[in-house]
């Protein structure tokens, strides 16, 4: 199975830029990389999705290198309300069947 | 648009019992996926349904089964419950495989 690993936790101060990297060494060839935010006792909330290079929306940017074995979520100017767990999600076909694999999750704490 | 709705929100069952969880996808979405999230862990992919058929499946035993109805709503059934089945069960819907998935709030299942 694809091993999708992320840093366990990160601390940041309000107004700073935060970059969270996910390593996905066996991502399915034609699959997208998606990032989600999750607050306690809630379902994950979509942040951004991309296939290659760089994608930007109103809340984040996603950087994907040419080999697609990793991706970096960039959150500009974080606020206290961005304190949450962040997950990457990729597809894996290494076992012969397609499966969705969430990353290990990064707990982001934003400090005042 | 009510988004993805799941029922019930909380449930307590005894070991060996059977449980059925329900999910109504976001309007216009025909693909439904189910995930299990143990406390402090990332979501684990159970299976995905499309056109009333199981399209992909994660590493879960046959005790976990599902169904999708013509209106795209879905059920997750778990037989012979074990204590280890206690988790938050998440349903996600999307208009197709490679677009953003919207998650429900989940069903918290406790097996005693």
Brief overview:
Chain A has 112 residues and is mainly β.
- Approximately how much helix is present in the residues of chain A? under 10%
**Assembly form of the protein:** heterodimer
The radius of gyration of chain B is: 13 Å
Rounded mean pLDDT of chain A is: 91
Biggest interface, which chains?
Answer: A-B, 23 and 26 residues
Q: Which overall shape of chain B is indicated by the principal axes computed on the Cα atoms?
A: globular
Low-confidence stretches of chain B: none
List SSEs of chain B in N-to-C order: EEEEEEEEEEE
Major sheet characteristics of chain A = 6 strands, mixed
Q: Label the structural class of chain B.
A: mainly beta
Q: N-to-C terminal Cα separation of chain B, in Å?
A: 36 Å
Which residues of chain A form runs of ≥5 with pLDDT under 50? none
How far is the N terminus from the C terminus of chain A?
39 Å
Number of strands of chain A: 11
SSE arrangement of chain A, N to C:
EEEEEEEEEEE
As a percent range, the share of strand residues of chain B is over 45%
Mean pLDDT of chain B: 94
Would you kindly provide a written description of the structure presented here, covering whatever features stand out?
The complex is a heterodimer of chains A (112) and B (112). With 112 residues, chain A is an all-beta fold. In chain A, 0% of the residues lie in helices and 53% in strands. Chain A has strands at residues 4-5, 9-13, 18-24, 33-38, 45-50, 53-56, 61-64, 70-75, 84-92, 99-102, 106-111. In chain A, strands 2, 4, 5, 9, 10 and 11 form a six-stranded mixed beta sheet that branches. Chain A has a five-stranded antiparallel beta sheet with strand order 1-3-8-7-6, with no helix packed on it. In chain A, strand 9 (84-92) and strand 10 form a beta hairpin. Chain B is built from no helices and eleven strands. Chain B has strands spanning 5-7, 10-13, 19-24, 31-37, 44-50, 53-57, 64-68, 74-78, 87-94, 102-103, 107-111. In chain B, the strands form two sheets. In chain B, strands 2, 4, 5, 6, 9, 10 and 11 form a seven-stranded mixed beta sheet that branches. A four-stranded antiparallel beta sheet of chain B has the order 1-3-8-7, with no helix packed on it. Chain B is globular and about 35 Å long. Chain B starts with a strand and ends with a strand. The model of chain B has no long low-confidence stretch (mean pLDDT 94).
């Amino acid at each position: 199975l694809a091993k999708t690993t992320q840093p366990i936790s990160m601390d940041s101060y309000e107004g700073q830029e935060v970059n969270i990297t996910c390593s996905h060494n066996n991502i399915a060839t034609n699959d997208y990389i998606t990032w989600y935010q999750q607050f306690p006792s809630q379902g994950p909330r979509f942040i951004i999705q991309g296939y290659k290079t760089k994608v930007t929306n109103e809340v984040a940017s996603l950087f994907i290198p040419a080999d697609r074995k990793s991706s970096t979520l960039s959150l500009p100017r974080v606020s206290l309300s961005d304190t949450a767990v962040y997950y990457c999600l990729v597809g894996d076909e290494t076992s012969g069947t397609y499966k969705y694999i969430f990353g290990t999750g990064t707990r982001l704490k934003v400090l005042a | 648009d009510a988004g993805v709705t799941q029922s019930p929100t909380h449930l307590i069952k005894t070991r060996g019992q059977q449980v059925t969880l329900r999910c109504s996808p976001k309007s216009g979405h025909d693909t439904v996926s189910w995930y299990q999230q143990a406390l402090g862990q990332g979501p684990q992919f159970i299976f995905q349904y499309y056109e009333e058929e199981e399209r992909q499946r994660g590493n879960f035993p046959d005790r976990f089964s599902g169904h999708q109805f013509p209106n795209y709503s879905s059920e997750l059934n778990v037989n012979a419950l074990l204590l280890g089945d206690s988790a938050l069960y998440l349903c996600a819907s999307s208009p197709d495989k490679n677009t953003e998935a919207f998650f429900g709030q989940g069903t918290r299942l406790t097996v005693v």
